[in-house]
């Protein structure tokens, strides 16, 4: 039987709609407009596309969007001065520094200079620690989007075996923390894992975040398992440019119970969660009830 396709695009539209309704209430009842500042250093074309689409969607849900585009040779001191200014700007509730930064800038230093309460990407060391200890934090957008889709599809995921393939700080590790927080039994696999297919075969939930086109194969998947494909890989096939995930969609969809497509799965949820995080940051900053 073919897998259920988890429609991240439709779910993300629903999340954005809920965010927009909440933003309207904030304006009507409290005269507050959530503000998101995005900082882009240099001219990476993929980053420019992301920043543009983030800005557009921020405005669409009724928030204030501010973009700071800095030259590739911006010094660390200049960037830190801008972050300091945004940290102290009461109209800005979320700050996102688009990664990767040019090589001469220390990413950890820059991210850790953000006010943790405005760190809507959830990469600041304080937020990483809060998430790891199960405390209220800013949660990284991509894993948060994956968790929301899993909860929506399954109801409860408590007790399920989850295998996260990939251990990056921005996807794999926070994903594992979130699954653990929802009482899954979690395995984190990576490039040194022995017999990866066999490890993945034990999973009720597989999260593929490896950055390798179509690596996870259908015969690695336990029948009926849920496959969340985080990968975004641009490949060329039969002379045509194509976007594919880290799982081989066709073979996995034959065995899985449910699967996220690429495009239209995790990707749209990431931006929706960024907006949701900005709204949460704004509510917290103003001592108001947070969205659920
Ligand atoms: P990284 O390159 O930072 O991490 C990749 C991870 O995969 C590493 O932990 C690496 O292991 C592991 N890995 C690499 N090759 C293998 C292998 N052959 N077998 C097992 N594990 C392997 O990537 P990211 O976490 O940043 O991103 C992962 C994917 O998600 C990418 O395709 C990226 O484009 C996509 N992405 C999508 C987003 C979205 O919004 N949908 C947002 C962010 C990322 P090791 O640590 O041992 O090297």
From TrEMBL:
CDD domains (alphabetical): NAD_bind_m-THF_DH_Cyclohyd
Known catalytic reactions: (6R)-5,10-methylene-5,6,7,8-tetrahydrofolate + NADP(+) = (6R)-5,10-methenyltetrahydrofolate + NADPH; (6R)-5,10-methenyltetrahydrofolate + H2O = (6R)-10-formyltetrahydrofolate + H(+)
Coiled coil: none
Pfam families found in the cross-reference section: THF_DHG_CYH, THF_DHG_CYH_C
Tetrahydrofolate dehydrogenase/cyclohydrolase NAD(P)-binding domain residues: 140-284
Pathway: One-carbon metabolism; tetrahydrofolate interconversion
E.C. code: 1.5.1.5, 3.5.4.9
Domain Tetrahydrofolate dehydrogenase/cyclohydrolase catalytic: 6-121
Keywords noted in UniProt: Amino-acid biosynthesis, Histidine biosynthesis, Hydrolase, Methionine biosynthesis, Multifunctional enzyme, NADP, One-carbon metabolism, Oxidoreductase, Purine biosynthesis
Chaperone among keywords: no
GO cellular component: cytosol
Annotated binding of NADP(+), by residue: 166-168, 232
GO aspect biological process, one term: purine nucleotide biosynthetic process
GO molecular function terms listed in the Swiss-Prot or TrEMBL record: methenyltetrahydrofolate cyclohydrolase activity; methylenetetrahydrofolate dehydrogenase (NADP+) activity
Statement: the UniProt record of this protein carries the keyword rRNA processing: no
InterPro entries (UniProt xref): Aminoacid_DH-like_N_sf (IPR046346), NAD(P)-bd_dom_sf (IPR036291), THF_DH/CycHdrlase (IPR000672), THF_DH/CycHdrlase_cat_dom (IPR020630), THF_DH/CycHdrlase_CS (IPR020867), THF_DH/CycHdrlase_NAD-bd_dom (IPR020631)
Function summary: Catalyzes the oxidation of 5,10-methylenetetrahydrofolate to 5,10-methenyltetrahydrofolate and then the hydrolysis of 5,10-methenyltetrahydrofolate to 10-formyltetrahydrofolate.
Quaternary structure and partners: Homodimer.
Similarity remark: Belongs to the tetrahydrofolate dehydrogenase/cyclohydrolase family.
Protein name, per record: Bifunctional protein FolD
Gene transcribed to yield this protein: folD
